[in-house]
Amino acid sequence: MNLKEALEGRRSVRRYSDRPVDREVIVSLLEAAETAPSAGNLRAREYYVVTSPELRSALSVAAFGQEHVARAPVVVVVCADPARSGMRYGDRGQLYSIQDAAAATTCLLLAAHDLGLGSCWIGAFDEMVARDILDLPGRLLPTAMVSIGWPDERPAPPPSRDMTEAIHWIEG
């Protein structure tokens, strides 16, 4: 699949088959995530891979009842490490670590699509509840959950946007 096909074909999948996702596949997805750009190449991000049905169910509650979080065979919680970026960038390190985590999340989604997996970026969740469920170290900031599995649906493409609303030319 070429990049344009991947970008145009990726969808947020919320229904998954019962087929498990092999550990090696998950590792390959996380290796793809690590190819993402990173401020100062510090890679101020970490990944918590959740396959436990009980913990996925708890994360579903933390995600305000989004049931696909519980039903997906795998949930990856992507965390930013602001202190890691902050050592080099001071207060801006907070922002840079969140950008690092977001870039990695995007690469994770595209890698999943490339392998025929479905995935969904979940940003709506109670950070403190997720932190408690996973017993995260205080230095980490959970920025995204990603549900992953073999898709049991093919969502339609979203409506396109008139790019004149988004593009602003400043020419000299």
UniProtKB/TrEMBL annotation:
One of its GO terms (molecular function) is oxidoreductase activity. Residues 64-150 form the Nitroreductase domain. Keywords: Flavoprotein, FMN, Oxidoreductase. SUPFAM superfamilies: FMN-dependent nitroreductase-like. It comes from the Archaea. The keyword Oxidoreductase applies. It holds the Pfam family Nitroreductase. InterPro entries: Nitroreductase (IPR029479), Nitroreductase-like (IPR000415). The keyword Phosphoprotein does not apply. Its cofactor is FMN. Belongs to the nitroreductase family. PANTHER family: NAD(P)H NITROREDUCTASE YDGI-RELATED, NITROREDUCTASE. This is NADH dehydrogenase/NAD(P)H nitroreductase, putative. The lineage of its organism: Archaea, Methanobacteriati, Methanobacteriota, Stenosarchaea group, Methanomicrobia.
